[in-house]
Specification:
One of its GO terms (cellular component) is mRNA cleavage and polyadenylation specificity factor complex. GO terms for molecular function: RNA binding. It contains 20 helices and 34 strands. It has 4 domains: about 5-210 and about 585-645, Ribonuclease Z/Hydroxyacylglutathione hydrolase-like (Metallo-beta-lactamase, Chain A, 4-Layer Sandwich), CATH 3.60.15; about 220-375 and about 400-415 and about 570-580, Rossmann fold, CATH 3.40.50.10890; about 660-700, no CATH class; about 705-780, 2-Layer Sandwich (TATA-Binding Protein). The radius of gyration is 38 Å and the shape is globular. The protein is of the alpha/beta class.
């Protein structure tokens, strides 16, 4: 029988939220696909953390498809807090860029408020465990997942972005959430169209209702804002789409020589590392980039026109009007939020959104308000034109742009000042003084004890435990009761009948076969044999001085660091700047999704990662006559945490072949499998084990009709005919071959799924076309090659 396949979207479907995660189960082997979060690392709907807590204990492997926070954001948390210590698979660019994305997000959060969900060390640890794969590299799971093979394919959208193919036996699951069918400046189009007829296709429908506008341009509004003499803010991600945007603007600045007039910069915490890694990943980019690099040895990501900044002070130091690419897209955190707060009141400034806007974020809210006000203003102006004379309006468009207010909560880390700073430093100095005083007293007592007690502990005469020496005291005991520690012997209750004496034990001399062992150090030239005690004191003093020096250095470093605190302030922002939205998402729109799904032609379709309207639109199309014409039971739209059983209803059995039969069968390669035709009868070989064997076929049963395997592509057939010197043309969906000299006509037509007809008179052309047509398929011979 076929493998049991279950699929569960954990979160990110049906709500418009971009953070996603899925659980795929194949015969009890659980694969977590993506583990995303948002850049705020909050969970207001209580959907992310509870879902991960529920499934993490049973996860056997993790697959990551993109480097953005919406796909890797929760991975360090699951590793550090939930114990997700399983192999994780992704491409090299996702490893590098995903790690940088988490660095930037974590540092941005720590600059605003205390953050303890995970640390930078957790990020490093989880990415150190990643198994890196190349595109189209087959990786076979082992142990519990034996028989399962995972293969990454290019998805477009960003460096290393992946469409995953998971296969076991006849089950072939394709997971494609964000993909791009268009070539970009540094990326090829997705390879999803090369994967044909899988048993299941899990596809994202986040852009199903969108239609790509080829006239969408981000250059015109940017140039207009710069000519007004004001700045342009482009909120973007850390290491994904920012690479394409930076390359596009660098080429624009070079082509139009804007470098002398305007500044162009990228600002976030790991900006330098982002483009340093991009420069080293030419093999993961488009063919055009690779060919240009091979011919000219010029790396396109040198980016001579782009300034790399890591702080707002560096941005402010740049001259003239400037274009700033800053993280993050949501405007909820990072340098993009800080710059928006600073520039939003300027009516000449421009905020250009170049990525999808997630609901319940500041970016989505301000764009929605701006769009509504602009639509209302346009409607009012159209009504006024019919009632008033058409007086010329000022050229400055800010006279007609509406402004609005928005409430935000500003969180930041500020340095202590005034009385708070003085109080903090006084408390720190007092703490250091007490610590130094205690260390000196402990050292002094230790020297006194070691000076009179150089022997082992003395056992009590009454058989009790030996007295505890100073060296064996714990930190807490020595700190708490330092004054109560006796000079030697510890807290020993001496028997009044005995005379109090200093503890002393006769040293035991060591002997060998020749007598007492001689200490050769006593005979060394220039050495003082009687200076052992003094040497120990000197060494102890040196260690004490070194420790005290290290403490002073540490104290000096801590005093140089300005102490800080976290503050929070409710602010009303007056938003008067201009906004623009350009379609630089790098994902396929609704029309492209339909074409790609039709090309892939899955047997079952699972729709995820969209709003309810988008998911329902893709379901309706897939079941319609203009779509895939799938049955309603073959298209799934699961809700979050809803597990669906998508096991294929196929009659597939495991059989045991005898070695002689296996050797004599003529195997033919069809896709990823070896196929052969065998005629025989089945019998149960062992009732207890339930193994099924195959008996040798009888001689009278030999022979079978010719079986053709494969999918005929009419353009490929036309090309094959042309290579043989036979000219053909398409007419009415048929491929027509006509010989003008003899008048022979042969017509090849695809009637339906898996059926092809060839019509014509029996002539030389007919048999030639038939032979070439047969070559387009894989034929299965009989067991003996008949």
């Amino acid at each position: 029988m076929s493998s049991v396949v279950r699929f569960t979207p954990l979160y990110g479907t049906g709500t418009g939220a971009q953070a996603v995660s899925y659980l795929l189960e194949i015969d009890g082997f659980n694969i977590l696909v993506d583990c995303g979060w948002n850049d705020r690392f909050d969970d207001p709907a209580q959907s992310i953390v509870p879902a991960l807590q529920q499934v993490t204990p049973k996860v056997d492997a993790v697959l990551i498809s993109h480097s953005g926070l919406h796909h890797v954001g929760a991975l360090p948390y699951a590793y550090a807090k939930l114990g997700l210590l399983v192999p994780t698979y992704c491409t090299l660019p996702i490893t590098r860029m995903g790690q940088l994305a988490l660095y930037d997000a974590l540092l941005s959060k720590q600059a605003e408020e205390p953050f303890d969900l995970f640390s930078l060390d957790d990020v490093d640890d989880v990415f150190d465990r990643i198994v890196q794969l190349k595109f189209q590299q087959h990786h076979a799971m082992t142990g519990k997942g034996a028989g399962i093979t995972v293969t990454p394919y290019s998805a477009g959208h960003s460096l290393g972005a992946t469409v995953w193919k998971i296969k076991k036996d006849t089950e072939e699951v394709i997971l494609a959430t964000d993909f791009n069918h268009r070539k970009e400046k540094h990326l090829n189009a997705t390879a999803l169209t090369t994967l044909v007829r899988p048993s299941h296709l899990v596809i994202g429908a986040s852009q199903m209702l969108e239609k790509h506008n080829p006239k969408s341009d981000m250059v015109a509004p940017v140039e207009a804002a710069l000519r007004r003499g004001c700045n342009v803010l482009i909120p973007t991600d850390t290491a994904g789409r920012i690479v394409e945007l930076a390359l596009a603007f660098d080429e624009l600045w070079t082509e139009k020589k804007y470098g002398k007039l305007y500044s162009l910069c990228v600002v976030h915490s790991v900006a330098y590392n982002t483009f340093e890694f991009a420069r080293s990943m030419i093999e993961w980019m488009s063919d055009a980039v690779a060919n240009k690099f091979d011919e000219t040895r010029q790396n396109p990501f040198t980016l001579r026109q782009v300034e790399i900044c890591h702080s707002l002070s560096e941005v402010d130091a740049l001259p003239g009007p400037k274009v700033v690419l800053a993280s993050f897209t949501s405007l909820e955190t990072g340098f993009a939020r800080d710059l928006f707060v600073e520039w939003c009141s300027n009516p000449k400034a421009l905020v250009l959104f170049a990525d999808r806007l997630e609901p319940n974020t500041l970016a989505h809210d301000v764009w929605s308000k701006h769009s509504d006000l602009m639509a209302e203003k346009d409607s009012t102006m159209d009504d006024d034109k019919q009632q008033t004379s058409s007086a010329p309006l000022p050229h400055d468009e800010t006279h007609i742009r509406p402004a609005f207010d928005v409430e935000v909560v500003l969180k930041r880390k500020v340095a202590l000042e005034g009385a708070e700073l003085k109080e903090f430093r006084d408390a720190r100095r007092q703490e250091k003084k007490e610590k130094q005083k205690l260390e000196r007293r402990r050292h002094h007592r230790k020297r006194e004890v070691s000076g009179i007690d150089g022997a082992p502990d003395v056992a009590r005469e009454d058989g009790g435990p030996a007295p505890m020496m100073m060296e064996e005291l714990s930190e807490s005991e020595s700190d708490a009761s330092l004054e109560d520690i006796p000079m030697a012997g510890g807290n020993v209750q001496m028997d009044p009948a005995h005379v109090l004496m200093f503890p002393f034990t006769e040293p035991v001399k060591e002997y060998d076969d020749f007598g007492e062992i001689i200490d050769t150090a006593r005979f060394m030239i220039g050495e003082d044999p009687g200076g052992d005690d003094d040497d120990e004191d000197i060494q102890a003093m040196v260690r004490f001085n070194q420790a005290e020096h290290q403490q002073q250095q540490q104290q000096q470093e801590e005093e140089e660091q300005v102490p800080s605190k976290y503050v929070q302030q409710n602010v009303t922002l007056h938003v008067a700047c201009d906004f623009a939205l350009c379609e630089q998402y790098g994902v396929s729109d609704g029309r492209a999704i339909k074409q790609i799904v039709s090309s892939v032609a899955p047997r079952r379709l699972i729709v995820v990662n969209g709003t309810k309207e988008e998911n329902e639109a893709l379901r309706e199309w897939a079941t319609s006559e203009k779509g895939l014409m799938l049955k309603a039971s073959e298209v799934y739209v699961p809700d979050a945490m809803e597990t669906i059983n998508v096991t294929s209803d196929t009659s597939v059995y495991r059989v045991t072949l005898h070695d002689s039969l296996f050797v004599n069968v003529d195997w033919r390669q069809v896709g990823d499998a070896l196929v052969a035709y065998v005629t025989g009868s089945l019998r149960v070989e062992d009732a207890e084990q339930g193994m099924i064997g195959i008996e040798g076929s009888q001689e009278q049963d030999r022979g079978h009709p010719t079986i053709f395997l494969g999918d005929l592509k009419m353009p490929l057939l036309k090309e094959s005919l042309m290579n043989e010197g036979i000219h053909s043309s398409f007419a009415g969906g048929c491929l027509c071959i006509e010989n003008a000299q003899t008048g022979a006509v042969v017509v090849v037509k695809k009637v339906g799924s898996g059926e092809v007809t060839i019509n014509g008179a029996f002539c030389e052309e007919y048999f030639a076309v038939r032979d070439i047509l047969y070559q387009q398929f894989t034929t299965l011979p009989d067991i003996l090659g008949a």
